[in-house]
Amino acid sequence: APRAPVVNGSLWVVAGEPVTVTCSADSDPAPIVTVLRGRRPVAVAVYEPQVTMALAAAQPEDAGEYLCVAENQHGQHSTAFN
């Protein structure tokens, strides 16, 4: 079964500044890793060990909870971050 994905931390971001968040997972077979905002996927990597969500200029409305989900045919794990 896949292990819970790891996120490079919750971040404090200044509005207008770029932000990059990487979520990684380790599983065999390789996972599908998705970053969700609500129910909407904002970044997806298929059969890759990590996915990166990048915002060129963060806005106040980008604040809030995101979910990183790693899944393969053996199961699914998720990690929330702000």
Automatic annotation (TrEMBL):
InterPro entries: Ig-like_dom, Ig-like_dom_sf, Ig-like_fold, Ig_sub, Ig_sub2
SUPFAM superfamilies xrefs: Immunoglobulin
Domain called Ig-like: residue spans: 2-82
Signal peptide extent: none
PROSITE patterns recorded: IG_LIKE
Gene3D superfamilies: Immunoglobulins
Pfam assignment, any one: Ig_3
UniProt name for this protein: SMP protein
